[in-house]
Design brief:
Length: 179
Amino acid sequence: MERALQGHNRTLAVRFDLKVPLAGMPPHRVSPMEDFFRIINRKVRTKYENEKKIKPYPHKCTVRYAQKVEQSVQSPYEHYHVVLFVSNDMFMRVGHLGPDDDSQLAVIIREAWHNVVGVDENTTEYLIHGSTPSYYRLQGPLNSFDPDHQKAFRHFSYLCKEKTTLYRRGRPAFTTSRK
């Protein structure tokens, strides 16, 4: 969160869950979250390059994230909890991330995840669930006394619960962007 606010004074922080389809993950996806964030970054770069052609001063956006993989008796398939940090100047809104959320960021997230899990975007399975609230608009720099920063941090701390964390050899349960 601190690095995101250092990079973008106005940051849109979005929390959501990614589920694996009932048919499972394609066998060639060894690192599904690495693939997911690689696709997100590529789509954000493409958006920036397209805006450079039509706007005199397009807003750059560095994608930052925190994610955790979980599995429980109630959820036999692994699933992922994600907080995505982007420039609020580039992405001004996002909805609940469902199929009828037409915000640019929601479309990018859905397309990336559907590509990773190998399903058509018209699937009837709900594989992406936005939290409530699904996003926070944050102003930098990070300030532990700022009520908006406190609320967001508390909301994002959901990723830290231990009980359902999935630990596997050779694959971290919790990762963040390195930039």
